[in-house]
Every structure is written in C-alpha cells, then in structure tokens.
TrEMBL record, chains A, B:
Organism of this sequence: Crenobacter oryzisoli
Keyword set, alphabetical order: Isoprene biosynthesis, Magnesium, Metal-binding, Transferase
Recorded family membership: Belongs to the FPP/GGPP synthase family.
Pfam family, one: polyprenyl_synt
Protein name: Polyprenyl synthetase family protein
Cofactor(s) the protein requires to work: Mg(2+)
NCBIfam families: FPPsyn (NF045485)
Gene3D superfamilies associated with the record: Farnesyl Diphosphate Synthase (1.10.600.10)
C-alpha cells in the first residue's frame, strides 16, 4: 500500500509543490491501513487480481485520509496530532489542509475511473457508486455532521449506533465491497453474507476505537487520547461501560465470523482481520 | 437545472438536517449555471439525451459550488457574500461549510455513477475521469493552491494563464467534455476542435471575470467587488490593462468560434454561450 500510494500521489517537486508535498505528508508513512487490508482480503475471497484491488484500496485510503485531515481542522475537532505526527493544518496551514482533503477526495474517484484490466466498466462504476454512497451525506460526511451536532448531548445507544454506522461503518463496509467488486460476481446470498460481515466489522471497529480512546495513552495511540470524554462526546464506553463495550466488540466479531462460514477457507484472511480489529481492545 | 438539482440534493427534513439544508442553500437559487449550459450545448452537438446530460450537468455544478463554498471560508478568501447571499460559513458555521463542500463533491461523483440509459459504462467512467482530472490537484484544487501562493507576488502573464487554466479553465473544459461524452462518439479531429473551443472559452471566462471584478459594483456582481485588487492578486486587468483585457476576451471568443466552424448549425448553441460569456464584459 505504501508503494502503491506513493506512486499514485503527485510528486512533491511538481507545482503546486506545497499542495503535493502536504498530500504525501498526510497519506504516506502512517496509519494501520485497515480499510485497504479489508479490500485485499475481500478481493482474495472472489479471486480478484491484486493490481485492481490495489487501485480500489488506494481510493478508499485516500477518502479515509481526506476525512482525517478535514476532521482535524480547527473548525471541526481542532486536533494537533495524528498518526504520531503534527496534523496537516499544524505542519502546513489551514488553507493547505482544506485543499489537501479536497484534492485527495478527487484523486480517490479518479483512481476508480482508470482502466482496470479484467474488471467490467459497469463494475468499476459500481465501485464509484459504493464509495460515493459511503463517503457522502448519507455516509461518512453525514455521520460527521451528526457527530458535531451531538457534542454535549445525551444520545441513546440507537442514535450513537446510527451515527457510527454512517461516520465509520459505511467506509469500512465499502472497503469490503470494493475489493469484492474486483473479482467474480457473488450470488445474492453470498453478497448478503459479505455485507453482514462488513456491517458487523464496521461497528466493532468503532466500539474498539472508543475503548482505546479511553484506555490507551496518547503516545501509544498516535493521536490525542481521552479526547471524546474531554469533549463530552457520547461513546460506547460512556454509554455501556468499559467491560460491556469490550464484550460487545467480541460479540460483533463472532457474528461477523458466522456470516462468513459458507465461504470456507477463502474467507480466512477476512476472519483474521476481524480478529485483529477486535484484539486491539484486549 | 434548478429542478434537477433540487431533486438530486438530499431533503432538508432528513437527518443530518443542517448539513442537507446548507447543501441546498448553497446550490439552489443562484448562479448563472454557465457550466451546465455548456454541457447541454455540447450534448446538443452530439445528439445526446438531455436526461443524461442533466445528470452530468448536476455533477459539474456541484463540483463548482463545493469549490465556491470552500474558497469563501475564512482560511481561504474569507468572503461573506456569494451569489447575493451570505456565504455558507456565515449563514451556518465553518464546520458545516467544510462538510457541505465535502459532501457536494462526493455527490457529484455519485451522480456520474448512476445508470444512464443509452450511455456506455465506459463513457460514464470517462466522465468520472474527466471530472476528477479537472477538479483535482492537476486542475481546480491545484489552481487554487497556486492562487493562494501567488497573493502579493508579481506573476508573469504565462504564470497567470497557467493558474487560471487549472483553477477555472479545467472545469469549464470538462463541462463541454461531459456533455459530449453523453452522445455519439467524436472523430479525433472533432474532439480536438471541441477541446480547442473549450480551452478558449475557459480562459475567456476568467478574463471577463477579472474585468467584471474591476468594473462592476458589489450589488451587480452578487459577490464582493474589487477584492482581487484589494488583496493585491494579479489579474488580467492588472497585467494587461482594462481595454486590452476586453480585447483579449473578444479575440478568444473569435478563436473559439473558428474552432467550431466544421460542425455547422449544430454548434450554434455553443457559439451563443461563448458570445454570452464574453458579452458580459462589454
């Protein structure tokens, strides 16, 4: 992923240099690349060509990184540390951070529009659609708007779940889908099962994030810890308690495993990722 | 366009309400819709179905509007008036303006991914690619980065032209292309001529904008007038003088006309638009 992203991002010595340099700064050398890994694992499930999955994985990661850059800006979460480095508007300036996010989003969709050998144009269009639905007003951006509006409010568990389904879950789910769209067509039942897996993992990811925000220190996390509590943001931990949140994450993993059962060993990598995501909170 | 955009934008009564409300506020009831008009006129040239061109036109206009919303933010041009109304971060807040721009960009690409009856999936993918190239780091966002870096600097005419080619020209050019991609395939010579037209018109549009920024008052313009001079930004007027800038705009129009000559009366609407764009500065 590091090599693929480095090849796709514009070179720092080409004008506008500061924009390109900042795009590389925020995207390279950092992040767990969970979404790309999910895309590759889903691609493996359907025998997809890894070059094509790589393209989709770059697109997904760029959408994710753009959202981090914008979320960290002073008018949003106003954060100074991300992936262990100063955030974009701190290392560069606010105007650059704004443009970096904008240009990364565009580059993500551009990636999906480039020829993919052996993938039908209609499947590529589906990728564009899935990614757009996951990232837009009915997905990630919408979830962020609900999150902003919820600061200092008491949310119900159902409201919190809806917010995270949009904010984090939608893109995790799309990661699985984009990988799967690069390979053989799925039956309706297979598609439904894969989607069940993706939904569970998306939710588990957020529950674990809340656990980590509560338990880990800033150095381990690479971003400011304890911020949600300090901002009086509702989290799974604040609503369920720490032990119950951990139990819930494991329950979601087990349900995700069950959904993949009929796929047999082809789903092993997806299962390993589900395990990895949840094990972070042990 | 007004009806089409209103139908495509998320409803204000659906959560997150403030995001959706602000998306409609910035997009509807305003703007000259020059880019959609160019797409429709180019569609007419190649016998495109207007329903499909409408989809592409919505996508282009949403990219344009997102760029206005972000450019007006305090960390960029810090403007309070746009299309005769308070800008998004003034009417709502900065976080909402950031998300509105982000979500409009996503929605633009989503539009191009929806089924278009009678348009090949490969042509739709081409639309995604053309729009992404025009909007991203090598187009609009890159031009904006160069613009920001040029405040207070003395640019040469060649540097100014390059900046505007990216910042404004690329999307104008893509508008013509997306309309054309909805219809019959063009020969290489036709494609080259249409592109010559689109390039000339994109540049003329910016020259005329500079003339208007210098000559018109804020009420007529619907945005703050004289801002470029106040910000010490280089413009065609500051580099060429007012009379020469007007002459240059007319020259570009005449060259644009000449490029369309072999198309005959099918190009009449495109010519009328070129005339309209330049006549604004008379």
């Amino acid at each position: 992923m590091e090599t693929a992203l480095a090849a796709v991002l514009p070179a720092s010595h080409i004008a506008p240099e500061s924009l390109h340099d900042a795009m590389r700064y925020v995207t390279l050398e950092g992040g767990k690349r969970v979404r790309p890994l999910l895309a590759f694992a889903a691609g493996e499930l359907v025998g997809a060509d890894s070059t094509n999955v790589e393209r989709a994985a770059c697109a997904i990661e760029m959408i994710h990184v753009y959202s981090l850059v914008h979320d960290d800006m002073p008018c949003m979460d106003d954060d100074v540390l991300r992936r262990g480095k100063p955030t974009c508007h701190v290392a560069y300036d606010e105007a650059t951070a704004l443009l970096v996010g904008d240009a990364l989003q565009t580059l993500a969709f551009e990636q999906l529009s480039l020829p993919m050998d052996g993938v039908a144009a209609s499947a590529q269009l589906q990728m564009v659609r899935k990614l757009a639905e996951a990232a837009g007003h009915g997905g990630m951006a919408g979830g962020q708007a609900i999150d902003l509006a919820s600061v200092g409010k008491q949310l119900t568990l159902a409201e919190l779940e809806y917010m995270h389904l949009l904010k984090t879950g939608a893109l995790i789910r799309a990661s699985v889908w984009l990988g799967a769209l690069a390979g053989r067509a799925l039956s309706n039942e297979e598609a439904e099962r894969l989607d069940q897996f993706a939904k569970r993992i998306g939710l588990a990811f957020q529950v674990v994030d809340d656990v980590l925000d509560c338990e880990a220190d800033t150095a381990t996390l690479g971003k400011t810890a304890g911020k949600d509590a300090a901002n009086n943001k509702p989290t799974y931990v604040s609503l369920m308690g720490l032990a119950e949140a951990k139990r819930f994450a494991r329950e979601l993993r087990d349900e995700a495993f069950a959904a993949l059962e009929p796929f047999g060993p082809a789903a092993d990598r997806l299962k390993a990722l589900a395990d990895y995501i949840v094990a972070r909170s042990f």
